[in-house]
Each structure stands twice: as structure tokens, then as C-alpha cells.
Amino acid sequence: MTAFKSLLPTELDRAAFVQHFGGVYEHCPWIAEQVWDSGLDAGHNSLEGLQTALRAFVENAGYEPQLALLRAHPDLAGTLAVSGNLTEESTNEQASAGLNACTQEEFETFQNLNAAYREKFGFPYILAVKGRKRAEILENFKSRVAFDPFDEFTEALSQVHQIAFLRLSEL
User: Fold this and answer.
1) Where in the sequence is the domain holding 18, given as residue range(s)?
2) pLDDT of residue 78
3) To 5 degrees, how large is the angle CA 37–CA 164–CA 81?
4) Tally of CB atoms within 10 A around 143
5) SS3 47
6) Do residues 86 and 148 share a domain?
7) 3 found inside a domain
8) Could you give phi then psi for residue 106, rounded to 5 degrees?
């Protein structure tokens, strides 16, 4: 089990826990709040233990909270990215995949795909982009627009969990 570098979650009060882990799931500090409120034990002092607790809470939250979680995510290479209004985590993740350096044609393709995806599914396309390149992301995006809504909801949640794990690993 991988221990956290500088702190133990069980040694934090609620406010400090939410401050530190509230951004693991994009704009959803309520997840960290609920996990803290449910009680922490020594098993939550590892990366795996805390990630399991956060994931389990999301998985058991039900459709509406899960949909709110999905909707809290920004479009990839979208207007928020262009205007500089992403969270620091999203900015770094998108930049690591080169999404901040799209050509005009790529940007327009992303915009068109973002619009089609949101129209079909009601939430933004979500992909854990760390370690991926623009071309790979675009191919994945194009294929997922064709998914069945149930399958895509499941895939989007899976991607959110991967993003959360990567963010938690950074801590």
C-alpha cells in the first residue's frame, strides 16, 4: 500500500480533509465531505484505501449525483480552456496531452465533437488524458460519440475515477 507523502488523512479535521482532497473529483468537494463524514480509519491512510472509499461513495451515490459529477467536468480543448478558466488540475492535465496547442482545425474538430457529444449524452466527453496525445484523444472521442447512452455513462464514470486516481496519486 502506498502511503501519502506528507500527511495522513485520518489526522486531518473535516475542513483540512476537504481542503486537501476536495479537488480530487472535479468541482465536487461534497464527495470528500461525505467520505470524511462516513468515518475514516487507518485503512484510509493509503492511496489505495482512500481511493477505494472515494470511488465506492461515487458508485453508490446514484444516478443524479453521478450525473452532476460528470457535468462538473469541462470540455476538452473547450472554451474554458481557451479563456484560462479551468481548474489548475484540468489545465495541467489538458496541457500534458498537448490540448493547449491545438491547430485551428483540431480546435474546430474538438468544438464540433463537444457539441455533438453534449447533445447526445447531456454531459461533457471525459477522458483521463494524462499520457495521451491529441490524435489518440480525437480518435477516442470520435468512437465514443457513437456509444450507447448507458455504456457511455458507465465509461465516463470510469474515466472520472481514473482522473481522480491520478490526482490522488499526485498528492
Assistant:
1) 9-62
2) 58
3) 120
4) 9
5) helix
6) yes
7) no
8) -65, -45
How many helices (H) and strands (E) the chain has is answered by 9, 0
Task: Give tens-digit pLDDT for 102-127.
Answer: 888 988 999 999 999 999 999 999 99
DSSP 46: B
HSE-CB for 144 with a 13 A CA cutoff: 24
The label of the residue with cell 485503512 reads 43
Q: Are residues 35 and 84 in the same domain?
A: no
Q: Which of 92, 95, 116 is nearest to 166 (CA)?
A: 92
Residues designated catalytic: 73
Per-residue pLDDT of 1-35, as tens digits, reads 676 767 899 999 999 999 999 999 999 999 999 99
- 17's grid cell: 480533509
78, with CB counted inside 10 A (0-12, 13-18, 19+), is buried
Residue-wise pLDDT tens digits, 140-170:
999 999 999 999 999 999 999 999 999 999 8
Amino acid at 148: D
> Can you give the length of the chain in residues?
171
The 10s digit of each residue's pLDDT in 57-90 is 999 999 999 999 999 998 887 554 555 555 778 7
